[in-house]
Write a structure and sequence with these properties.
This protein has 301 residues and is of the alpha/beta class. It is 37% helix and 17% strand. It has 10 helices and 9 strands. Strands 1-2-3-4-5-6-8 form a 7-stranded parallel sheet, sandwiched between helices. Helix 9 packs across helix 10. Bound molecules: iron/sulfur cluster. Iron/sulfur cluster binds next to loops.
């Protein structure tokens, strides 16, 4: 029995071939780091943004073409998702953005996916993306870091972006026919289970087309690490995470694609929780819990 609308099955159904996502470093920054809306960034964000690995080149075309070639040779995928992952991928001058996006559209790239913030979405950027999508025949996904629907928590984590901007951004993104994917975090400082589930309800009600869940990671050099070291913050346990995921999935409409149940981490700079280093183990534990407790997407609506 299919318990949730997983990304792999969704892609296979829509594109008919195996697809792989390639993370790119577009050399972006973030308005919450450069002083435009805030300084220092969110308290869990390390200075490399959400980039998982060191990329050995700043040339976007080279980053993607090398990876596509390698994966096609290994027969691991036939089509690809070019993903601007680190910092805010829609933050920059329009012409610069155009160059970066088009540089990512190597042969076999079917989807341009961009991670960003709700306050970095506007009509000019969406028009630019619509133009690229039409000319280059690619689909566009925009991944928005919501993390929490609580403006109180948003203040604690220094998000510097009101929650209401998220649903407005989702509306705008969808009006261009693009997919809007929400990033949600479980285990933020001061958040109860109720608050985390409220975030899931809020994101679902906003009309998102996809969601990525992840546990809060304490990374070296972040403000969250300082709170952790002073004993003012405790990392979420695997048991707590499993329980919350099992309660979150039933709150999502079947149309929402679950892009990720647990994320990978930069092992070298991870302080806690250490259980996230074992991603396959965590995924297995989640799947087992879904089976055992008969967890099914949309069953709680
Ligand atoms: S919005 Fe994203 S990139 Fe910017 S500081 Fe927060 S986590 Fe980092």
């Amino acid at each position: 029995m299919k318990r949730y609308n997983d990304l792999k099955s969704f892609l296979l159904k829509r594109y008919g071939v195996k697809m792989v996502k390639i993370s790119l470093d577009g050399g972006f920054t973030c308005p919450n780091r450069d002083g435009s809306v805030g300084v220092g960034g969110c308290i869990f964000c390390d200075e490399r943004g959400s980039r998982e690995k060191e990329l050995d080149t700043n040339d976007i075309s080279l980053q993607i073409s090398k990876k596509v070639e390698e994966l096609v040779q290994k027969k691991e995928a036939e089509k690809f998702i070019a993903y601007f992952q680190n910092f805010s991928g829609t933050y920059g001058a329009l012409e610069t953005l155009r160059k970066k996006y088009t540089a990512a559209l190597a042969e076999r790239v079917a989807i341009l996916s961009i991670g960003t913030r709700a306050d970095c979405i506007n009509e000019d950027i969406l028009r630019l993306l619509a133009d690229i999508a039409e000319k280059e025949k690619v689909d566009v996904w925009i991944e928005l870091g919501l993390q929490t629907s609580s403006d109180l928590t948003a203040e604690i984590i220094n998000r510097c972006c009101k929650t209401e901007l998220f649903s407005r951004a989702v509306d705008r993104i969808k009006s261009y026919g693009f997919e809007a994917v929400a990033h949600l975090m479980f285990g933020l400082p001061g958040e109860s289970e109720q608050m985390m589930l409220d975030t899931v309800r809020y994101a679902a009600a906003s009309g998102i087309s996809g969601v990525k869940f992840h546990a809060v990671y304490i990374m070296k050099g972040t403000v969250l690490e300082e709170l952790f070291n002073r004993g003012e913050y405790k990392a979420i346990t695997r048991g707590e995470y499993l329980n919350i995921i099992a309660k979150a999935i039933p709150l999502l409409p079947t149309s929402v694609v679950v892009h990720r149940l647990v994320s990978s981490c930069k092992r070298e700079t991870l302080i806690a929780p250490l259980w996230v280093k074992d991603k396959p183990g965590s995924l297995n534990a989640i799947e087992e819990k879904f089976e055992r407790d008969n967890i099914v997407q949309a069953s709680g609506l």
